[in-house]
Inverse folding.
């Protein structure tokens, strides 16, 4: 996966004071790196964004500091019907953004990776 020059220091700053969240993110990154070697990653103020031709997934921290884990967000052409999805919104017709809380490494499973693969394919079809 393509990372910017200051990726490591930016990631450490993003997860500053949240060591368990950093470990979850790193485990997710390793899995995504294997599936999306041609993707690029960008660390921003409020999220870590993953791109192919277009944005296909994001990782953010819960709004409340007392909430543990990371929030994985991805875009799909239809709504996922899963209890794992905390929030699903349709910002544009047939473009659903799903927010999936991850609090344990076991949740970085084939189901989540399958959704990320679908999000990648969906984003690559956009003009």
């Amino acid at each position: 996966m393509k990372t910017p020059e200051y990726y490591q220091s930016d990631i450490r700053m993003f997860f500053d004071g949240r060591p368990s969240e950093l470990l979850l993110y790193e485990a997710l990154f390793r899995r995504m790196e294997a599936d999306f070697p041609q993707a690029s990653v960008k660390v921003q103020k409020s999220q870590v964004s993953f791109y192919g031709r277009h944005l296909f997934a994001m990782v953010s921290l819960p709004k409340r500091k007392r909430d543990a884990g990371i929030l994985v967000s991805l875009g799909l052409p239809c709504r996922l019907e899963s209890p794992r999805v905390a929030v699903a919104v349709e910002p544009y017709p047939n473009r659903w953004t799903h927010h999936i809380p991850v609090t344990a490494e076991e949740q970085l499973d084939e189901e989540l990776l399958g959704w990320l693969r679908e999000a990648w394919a969906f984003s690559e079809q956009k003009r």
Observations:
- The mean pLDDT is 95.
- Strands lie at 40-43, 48-51, 55-60, 70-76, 87-92, 95-102.
- The helical segments are 7-14, 19-35, 110-125.
